[in-house]
Design brief:
alpha/beta, six-stranded mixed β-sheet, four-stranded mixed β-sheet, 10 helices, 25% strand
Length: 343
């Protein structure tokens, strides 16, 4: 699931909202994929439970949420019924039970879906917490299920731990600095204080958000050490073209309050797959002009293949999972939001 171990074993239910599948006129392909993923991630899974669109979804949600404490799921994923057709009512049925919204999850799912298809922006799915159960709506397609797995895999363990009030950091160390994170200094680059347990003053993972200009050279220096045979960096720069327009004049980044912590956990997950790599990742917030650097990622590793692969994985994961949105401005005075309904 993630690097968070939950005890007792978490329970999950997968509900498929599809009138055609419920009546035997079509075969659902998303539910089995979600069930297999959750089972491999360590959940005790019920489902997929296939019901018709609309009120039957609400009835089944109520049934699962009213189960005795020992049988109530920690997580319910619904697949389907999130679009704009008249009987796509899964979000409305889900909203009846949500006590606290999880907007960051919604934004991350939309952003991840938009990487595959612009139609992902049509999803009206909700995410939130009902008592001690996390509810998440997903669009009802195989592609949407796979996109959701990529987005949710690094998040679910920490999310369920928070709902269970399992603290994974000490009071002296906030969640944002759980794995070598640092606060940006006056240059906009995180510091490079020595990480515990390493022989050199090179932390395995350094991430941060900065309102100040980024410094790619500082990022490269931050991951440099005697054992690094290759250093790769990526610099994402604001351009004057986007979505067929060539009159972009600048943009403004806004970050979710949990964005820094989510970035840290996301990059730490990537680092676990590249144990010899050292990673530095910083993202700008606030107003940027064309030509300004929006994100800097630097990776060092013993060999170039590992460095290239790790850097690409970090860039892709940060873009897909970290809730950062941009307001893009044009020479005409117009503006659009990018990231609220996908990147």
């Amino acid at each position: 699931m993630t690097d968070v171990t939950l005890d007792p074993q978490p329970r999950a239910t997968v509900i498929v909202a599809s009138t055609s599948a419920a009546h035997g006129r079509a075969q659902d392909r998303s539910g089995p994929v979600l069930v297999d993923w959750l089972a491999q991630a360590g959940f005790a899974v019920t489902g997929p439970l296939v019901v018709a669109d609309g009120a039957p979804v609400g009835h089944l949600l109520g049934e699962r949420l009213s189960a005795p404490a020992g049988a109530r799921p920690d997580l319910i994923l619904t697949s389907g019924g999130t679009g704009a057709t008249p009987d796509d009512l899964t979000p409305e049925q889900t909203a009846r039970y949500i006590d606290r919204e999880l907007p960051g999850i919604v934004h991350a799912l939309l952003a991840g879906g938009r990487e595959s298809t612009p139609l992902a922006a049509l999803s009206r799915g909700r995410a939130g917490i009902a008592g001690s159960t996390v509810l998440i709506n997903l669009p009802g397609s195989l592609g949407a299920a796979r996109d959701a797995i990529a987005v949710l895999s690094p998040l679910l363990g920490h999310l369920l731990a928070q709902v269970r009030d399992i603290r994974t950091h000490t009071p002296e160390a906030p969640a944002e600095s759980a794995v070598g994170a640092a606060t940006p200094d006056a240059t906009g680059a995180p510091g490079t204080a020595e990480a515990a347990g390493t022989a050199e003053a090179v932390p395995a993972v350094v991430t941060g958000l900065s309102e100040l200009p980024l410094d790619p050279a500082s990022a490269r220096r931050a991951v440099s050490h005697a054992g690094a045979g290759a250093t790769v960096d990526f610099v994402g720069t604001v351009r004057n073209t986007d979505s067929g327009r060539s009159d972009v004049t600048g943009l403004e980044y806004s970050a979710h309050p949990d964005a820094a912590a989510i970035m840290q956990r996301t990059v730490a997950r990537i680092a676990a797959d590249f144990p010899e790599a050292r990673i530095h990742c910083t993202h700008r917030t606030g107003r940027l002009a064309v030509g300004d650097d929006a994100i800097v990622v630097a990776v060092s590793a013993p060999h170039r293949g590992e460095a290239f692969a790790c850097c690409a994985a970090v860039v892709d994961a940060v873009k897909a999972t970290v809730p950062i949105w941009k307001r893009q401005s044009y020479a005409t005075g117009e503006h659009t939001w990018v990231g609220v309904d996908g990147h």
